[in-house]
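Hi all, long-time lurker, first post. I run a small reading group and we've been trying to get comfortable going from sequence to structure in the token notation. Rather than ask abstract questions, I figured I'd post a concrete chain and ask someone more experienced to write out its structure so we can walk through it together at our next meeting. Sequence below, copied exactly:
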Amino acid sequence: MRSDVSFTPAATSAAPLEASAPSADRRVGPFSGRAHRRRYLLILAGLILASLALVVLVLTWGNSQIPFTERWWRVSRMRSESLIVIALVTLCQSFATVSFQTATGNRILSPSIMGFESLYILIQTAVVFFFGISGLAEIDGFAQFVIQAAGMVVFAVLLYSWLFSGRHGNLHVMLLVGIIIGTGLGALSAFMQRMLDPNEFDVLRARMFGNVGNANTEYLWFVIPVCVGAAGGIWLLSRRLDAVALGRDISTNLGVNHKRQVMLTLTLVTVLMAMSTSLVGPMTFLGFLVATLAYAVTDTHSHRHVLPVAWLLGFVILGGAYFLLRHVLPMVDTVTIIVELVGGLVFLIVVLRRGRL
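-- Answer (accepted) --
Happy to help. Here is the structure in token form:
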């Protein structure tokens, strides 16, 4: 009798151990295991080393001055300004695209779908159309830069508050209206461009494509804190973005105000895109390219791990293209065009592989 009683607890205690054994292998976190974490750290370290090597190459390649003299530092200072611009542009594009794709729940979309670049081109075209080349030179300044960036932010925020606020707000309707407005602005810009003088159109065309050389480094004192602040806001929201990526119902059950987080994320995305576009011009596929590659190489959905890799990838890609086509090959004006071409090809490949948008 006692032997049966003493045997029963042992049998019952063994069952839970056997049932809980498989759960010991389960992991909850951004990585599936130690090998995955190790691979991520190696990728991150490799990108950091590649970025540092790229900085050294840009600063020293072809600099015939005696190292560390006043003339050498003068040349290096000019090149360092271009590197700062590249770092800011890739920071804006990578953080904006990754967070925008999370907010919209679609890995194929990019922030340019909202018509930021069409509005930028329309502003540039309207200035040349009404005031001519001389007017463009006179109006071009810090005030014009701020007004242009503020116009993009106000345009997007009004669109968000109009179509996404309220009980019946619909994100897909907002995106569709953004596409339609961007198409309309592009058509109006094309109409004005057809009526321009060929010389005026040639000057305007240089501003219609993203170019690191178009950046006015005198505005960096304003652009840097704005970009760092907006990117820092997205970084602070990265935990909640992980929940938003699970969908409206699941994120709401986890205690996240889905609509509020999406609105806040889209506002920060607007600020980043406005700064990037106003600084160097339109860059449609750079953000999509680095976001797609970042998700592919990290193999995780954690924004705190995807965002830095996306930024470093963007810096290596755009900075490497700038170094090759500016300091090695005489093809200065084709840097962003080639990057956009590669990004467009990657976009087509992704769409064709998935078979849907």
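A couple of things your group might point at:
The longest helix spans residues 70-104.
The chain has 14 helices and no strands.
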